[in-house]
Amino acid sequence: MKVAVKVKLKPSILDPQGKAVHQALQQLGFDAINGVRIGKFIELEVADSADPAERERQIEEATRKLLSNPVMEVFEIEAGEGESS
Amino acid sequence: MKVAVKVKLKPSILDPQGKAVHQALQQLGFDAINGVRIGKFIELEVADSADPAERERQIEEATRKLLSNPVMEVFEIEAGEGESS
């Protein structure tokens, strides 16, 4: 089962990488784009065999403790897309 | 209007960053997680005033030319979430 995790910077945190990309876009004439913020998109391959509650706990804990920085970032977990491998 | 762009590595491309995270998770006892792949999650703030067709063209072109590397990556554009600012 695949689980997608989106990690975004909190709105109050400056994003220099996004700013640099935005400036590059403006210089290239992409005038419809007014801002860029860059986060992470993490795909987890989760064992189908695991107990669903335990699976969910592990995904949530791993995201909170390792995949995101709770001081600067927020995350969203998107349930599995059903593509098992 | 906000537009979200997900950029993922193609399945055939090795992801050493994801592998390192996966190993760390395993060492910490997250045994339900069998694999990790790390991509980018980019939020674009797009001018509502722009012509929708032109807007879409710019988003698509910016993503293809600047935000992703077509040799190694694939992208998905998610239509605006309606949160204008």
Explain this structure.
Two copies of one chain form a homodimer. By secondary structure, chain A is an alpha+beta fold. Chain A has one domain: Phosphoribosylformylglycinamidine synthase subunit PurS (Mth169, Chain: A, 2-Layer Sandwich), CATH 3.30.1280.10. Chain A contains two helices and three strands. Chain A has helices at 16-27, 52-67, and strands at residues 2-9, 33-46, 73-78. In chain A, strands 2-1-3 form a three-stranded antiparallel sheet. Chain A is elongated, with a radius of gyration of 16 Å. Chain A starts with a strand and ends in a 7-residue tail after the last strand. At the A-B interface, β1, α1, β2 and α2 of A face β1, α1, β2 and α2 of B. β2 (33-46) of chain A pairs antiparallel with β2 (33-46) of chain B.
Walk me through the topology.
The structure is a homodimer.
Chain A: E1 2-9, H1 16-27, E2 33-46, H2 52-67, E3 73-78
Antiparallel strand pairs in A: 1-2, 1-3
Described by strand count, sense and barrel closure, the largest sheet of chain A is:
3 strands, antiparallel
Name the CATH homologous superfamily of chain A.
Answer: Phosphoribosylformylglycinamidine synthase subunit PurS
Q: Give the structural class of chain A.
A: alpha+beta
State the end-to-end distance of chain A: 7 Å
Integer-rounded radius of gyration of chain A = 16 Å
Q: β content of chain A, as a range? A: 25-35%
Tell me, briefly, the overall form of chain A: elongated
Order of helices and strands of chain A: EHEHE
| Mean of residue pLDDT values of chain A | 90
CATH class of chain A: Alpha Beta
